[in-house]
Design goal:
single chain; alpha+beta; 2 domains; 33% helix
Length: 406
């Protein structure tokens, strides 16, 4: 059950983008599992992808095509099959299905980016996908964002979407995004699929800069289990439908648009953690006083990934000794435990490495019994800070992943 997360309300359409889904029975029949996003000519696109060396065939194709041109006309997304660890046949399948989309919407095959999510190590059911692509193309509509958010789900329990509209000097600009992912989540370009669209007239360079900054502030601060997927992909596309002047990073409108894109990405990243497989707690880990941001993040992820911490949080057990353990094993050179401070929300656990004299077990237990709370660490080494979002490990996490292929 997702932690304090509801289905998104109506997601505002993006001028220059149409979305259509269809049933292709990729893993199981009876659900929409294939999605096409058609983009207007002149759209600028930029992406961030997994750093897993075993990256999926569609990731390889996307990287190749974006390296040559940002003139993208369509995205093809399928759920149920990752097309990863599938060798040369997997690459051929990704290109063949993308070519079928190109034929359906009358563009060049190189202008279609394929994306996949699901079971690793199985070949795509190409014939079923090619049969479904014309039906998805026939369903293309501007207000298809909510249906699209559901079509890309795998073990998600709730579709994930967010939208913002901001006033700019050239008129209202809309940003709308959808994402999927609730397991195998770790920030190496976080493990997920995410698609964020805007009707702003961003330059190619601004689009690339913006997606890098937005991902750093959002998806790369979200973790469920510390595993980095083979298929992570986050794409930002700007359809250039608002205004007549290009918006580069030095344009007065850029900070407004960048803030809206980042807000959408943060909302999607938090939704992914809230819907983490089997999650019952949404946990913010704040680390301050680091000598560098990198060492602060070492500590944050050491806490967020510790199975002992995560299972204690599921039990509502304020076993803060596990937090001390996770801080100590993070690998920060020369860390002085005598300078470490530790809190659960506003409840002080450690003060300069010493147990706080006013701490009582019932105070800590009251915090970790809540569905949302913050673990805060002070390292006493400098001024660097970081924030990470994570969740607990429940019985259902084991059950979902033990039965993933059944």
């Amino acid at each position: 059950m997702a932690v304090n997360l509801n289905e998104p309300g109506p997601l505002t359409p993006i001028a220059g983008a149409r979305l259509g889904s269809a049933e292709a029975a990729i893993k199981k029949p009876g659900r929409q599992d294939l999605l096409i996003i058609e983009l207007a000519p002149g759209t600028r696109a930029a992406g961030m992808f997994t750093q897993n060396a075993f990256c999926a065939a569609p990731v390889q194709v996307c990287r190749e095509r974006l390296a040559v041109s940002q003139n993208i006309r369509a995205l093809l997304i399928n759920a149920g099959n990752a097309n990863a660890a599938t060798g040369t046949q997997g690459l051929a399948n990704a290109r063949e299905t993308a070519a079928a989309v190109a034929a359906a919407i009358a563009c060049e095959p190189s202008q279609v980016l394929p994306f996949s999510t699901g079971v690793i190590g199985q070949q795509l059911p190409v014939s079923r996908m090619i049969e479904a692509i014309p039906r998805a193309a026939a369903n293309l509509q501007a207000d298809g964002w909510n249906a699209a958010a559901r079509a890309i789900m795998t073990t998600d329990t709730i579709p994930k979407g967010a939208t913002r509209t901001v006033a700019t000097s050239q008129g209202p600009v809309t940003v709308t995004g959808i994402a999927k992912g609730v397991g195998m989540i770790y920030p190496n370009m976080a493990t997920l699929l995410a698609y964020i669209g805007t009707d702003a007239r961003l330059t190619a360079e601004a689009t690339q800069t913006l997606i890098q900054h937005a991902v750093a502030a959002s998806f790369n601060s979200a973790t469920v289990d510390g595993d980095t997927s083979t298929n992570d992909s986050c794409l930002l596309f700007a359809t250039a439908q608002v205004g007549s002047s290009d918006v580069d990073t030095d344009h007065a409108d850029y900070p407004l648009i960048a803030a809206a894109v980042t807000e959408v990405c943060i909302e999607l990243a938090q939704a992914i953690v809230r819907d983490g497989e089997g999650a019952t707690r949404f946990i913010t880990v704040d680390v301050e006083g680091g000598g560098t941001v990198d060492e602060a993040r070492l500590v944050a992820y050491s806490i967020a990934h510790s199975p002992l911490v995560k299972t204690a949080m599921f039990a509502g057990d304020a076993n803060w000794g596990r937090l001390a353990m996770a801080i100590g094993k993070a690998g920060v050179p020369g860390l002085d435990p005598g300078k470490v401070d530790l809190w659960l929300d506003d409840v002080r656990l450690l003060d300069g490495g010493e147990p706080h004299p006013s701490y009582r077990e019932e105070l800590g237990s009251a915090v970790v019994a809540k569905p949302e709370f913050t673990i805060r660490v002070g390292l006493g080494r400098g001024t660097a800070t970081t924030r990470v979002w994570t969740c607990d490990f429940s019985y259902d996490y084991v059950k979902i992943n033990a039965e993933y292929r059944t």
